[in-house]
Amino acid sequence: MTDPELISLLENISDSLNRMAPQPVAVADPDAATAFVWHATGALQPIAHVNRVAMDLLKGVDRMRDQLLENTERFARGLPANNALLWGARGMGKSSLVKACHHDVTKRISAHLKLVEIHREDIESLPALMSLVRDHSEKYFIVFCDDLSFDGDDTSYKSLKAALEGGIEGRPDNMVFYATSNRRHLLPRDMMENERSTAINPSEAVQEKVSLSDRFGLWLGFHNCSQVEFLDMIDGYIAHHDIKVDAEELRDAAIEWSATRGARSGRVAWQFVQDLAGRKGVHLKS
Length: 286
Prior knowledge:
It is globular, with a radius of gyration of 24 Å. It is of the alpha/beta class. Strands 2-1-4-5-6-3-7 form a seven-stranded mixed β-sheet, with helices on both faces. The chain has two domains: 30-222, P-loop containing nucleotide triphosphate hydrolases (Rossmann fold, 3-Layer(aba) Sandwich); 227-280. Helix 6 (189-198) packs antiparallel against helix 7 (202-214) and helix 8 (227-240) crosses helix 10 (266-280). It has helices at residues 3-20, 62-76, 94-108, 126-134, 157-164, 189-198, 202-214, 227-240, 247-261, 266-280, and strands at residues 35-39, 43-46, 84-88, 113-118, 140-145, 175-181, 218-222.
């Protein structure tokens, strides 16, 4: 191989290695926004417009709303507050309530309250996020994980347990962890039963799994709504978006819609309203 050929080959290898090398991570200033998405690379991505529902449109969750709002208010004032687990029926406004509480408290009490969403697959990077949170002690961070659960041989739940309460440093005083899940104990029953059947001490194995939920001092259970609550949700959306429709027509169509879906929930109510607005030629407010 001639010298020019060797030089060309080395340059190609160098270019390939440069493309493969991780790019420098730009960590966003917490003042850049009130809400962020955390990436396992160590970056905070500012979110200019949070996809949220106004607090007064969340129906049938009054008790859970009051408890989470009070916990969030205390936290924003620098008072002790608990990690919160919102568990239960699908589509009943668990994640919507977290975002609505953050928005409400930010407007009324403190602009220093930040909402940081962490994806389920990035849970093992939580210690790095906690380290960043400690560096901004003048701000308060709600770290939020939507639809948190663990399956099969997934052991990352141990990282979450250690990050929330364990370790030498423990959870930063200026951080709380809010999570939503369809499961009360975050782990499927067959996973816990498998631990029971294979462990030397079955009760201890199951206790280790269940103890993850114990890291959440505030448990809020969401259940399927009644027909009255379902229609109340729809009425709220109809009034908010100023959709003109006959009351009797609306009731019959809403009941039929829920029957075809086999469920009544806030999500089903919103899907009905979107369909109704489309048929009526009404543009929904942002």
